[in-house]
Design goal:
The structure holds two protein chains of two kinds. Chain A is α/β, with parallel strands linked by helices. Chain A has helices spanning 45-52, 75-83, 100-108, 116-129, 146-157, 176-193, 204-210, 228-232, 237-244, 246-258; strands at residues 5-16, 19-30, 34-39, 60-65, 68-69, 85-88, 164-168, 196-200, 213-218, 221-226. Chain A has ten helices and ten strands. In chain A, α3 (100-108) packs across α4 (116-129) and α4 crosses α5 (146-157). Chain B has two domains: 21-115, STAS domain (Transcription Regulator spoIIAA), CATH 3.30.750; 155-391, no CATH class. Classes of the chains: A alpha/beta, B alpha/beta.
Amino acid sequence: MDAAPIIRLRGIRTQFGAQVVHDGLDLDVMQGEVLGVVGGSGTGKSVLLRCIAGLRPPQAGSIEIFGQDALNCSEAQRRAIDQRMGVMFQDGALFSSLTVRENVEVPMRTLPGLDARLRRDLADLKIAMSGLPYVAGDKYPSELSGGMRKRAGLARALALDPEIVFLDEPTAGLDPIGASAFDELINTLSQTLGLTVFLVTHDLDTLHATCDRIAVLAEKRVLYTGTMAEMQRVEHPWVHEYFHGPRARAAVAATERTG
Amino acid sequence: MSRGPLSASAQPGFDPKSGHASEHAALAPAAAGAGADWVLEGMLTLRSLPRLLPDLDRIGGGQVRLDLSHLSKLDTAGAFALHQLQQRLEREGGALQLEGLSRDHAALIERVAQSIPEPPAPAPSRRSLGDLLDLLGRNVAAAGIFLAELHAMLGMFLARLVWLVRHPSEFRMTALVHHCDQVGWKAVPIVALMSFLIGVVLAFQGAVQLRQFGAEIFVVDLIAISILRELGILLTAIIVAGRTASSFTAAIGSMKMREEIDAMRTLAIDPVVVLFVPRILALLITLPILGMLANFMGLFGGAMMSWIELGISPGMFLARLLDDTGVNHVVVGFVKAPVFAMIIGVIGCHAGMQVGGNAESLGSQTSAAVVRAIFAVIVADALFSIFFAMMDY
């Protein structure tokens, strides 16, 4: 793990009208780590993700990605940054008029020199690596279940072999087997590809199974960051409730059973 | 191989001017006695792959040892290319041995090799005469089903309307008023302007023709009969079909797409009562009113043009209109209005219910609803014309 953070947020402030979502938010994401972002509903986890992904610039603060100022840079530089990041939206956000394979090919079309056949083969590979059967490539998003759409969304996010992927609630709405398969997938990808993962989730099992570090969003900023073990010792009432509630205990027990 | 290695940057290079990450990989024959045949160095990634592929294709011939110890970066696309190279050499009776592979890269190649899907054999696709007949039959059946569904929708609407007469507390008055505003009041400017201009055009064209016979005064009959009997209502219905059928389809279709209509059903709310009845009823109420407005504005435009072009004063126009034009023309016009309203409403709502899970079907259904509604309105108008001609009314 490098010492320099791959994403560096300082003093982020976002607001919708009079409603302030983040105020003075600082966060570092290290290269190669899986960072889990947790927080109650409405604490702006997805808003933070959209800020970093460049979809919604913050009102104040600085964002550095790959050591570059991502807010004050030329359009070409921003595009280059975007090409090194992949985003998986909550419901996949697939283009509904394209098949899954065409969806995965879309980001590859921006690269020069990639011929159609290689693109197709690589798209099939990405679809298979996301755990979808081959035939899913020919289907339209509306013909897939919610879990399959998430996997297809991940396949598209991984299309350009990004260095950072943002996952918005990847396991929400999946059955337990599908969810743990997804956890497994995130682990494998982060190990084999050296992927940095920014994971927004409510799923304590996913946090246990995948995350190197956890950032807790509360009171309009990142209140605590640390490993799962460190989170257990935090005194803050909400954080304590989150990591010591009945669901948290079950997740810990499950992790201990499987080792 | 005579070509030397391309420049291989070890670090993820970034060109601040162009903003593009520059990633290179280079393939070169290994030095003699190096324990390998080829050396691959640099970054074997999706971005460097297209330029490297021709070089990789040149590798061939039996046992090949590839030195990867200077490979600084490998991604899934690169691993895929290495795997394909291995497959190709094995098909040709050789083998590929990867030397100096780091543990992470080996794991990645392993992972990619496991994931490569095996496409199932494609189904034979030959089009025979039977298939074409099959397609024709399916289309005819689909058209029949479509007509049946429209009638089902009409029946549902009428049945719920009768039911609502007996259960007036279930009726959504607010929704009806809202839709009357949307469908009727908001359409007033466009309908008024259009019919005024139609009256102007009729008077102008009629004047040019009738002046040849010295029969200018008949322009009043021409305008009155054509506007009151046909054009006022028909053109209003066409405009309303364009405005309203599309908005019904879009509103109901997006609710269908987001499963809101299913949610209503599970909450024991009847979508026909809540969505369709207020909309179609609003059309039934407002289309005749809009038609009346169109009639007035058309006659007004005609009178203005007759005055300017032919010197027929408004008083003369009015006297001629009241003396010569039978009330039957107005009746014929207004009889059609509720029928057109029903056609537009039913087609718009039906198309909304046909929307599937994706945004594209919403768009295609919306435009289909407009085309169908206008077509159906014109067909109905033609049938009315034949009917009234045979009735001699």
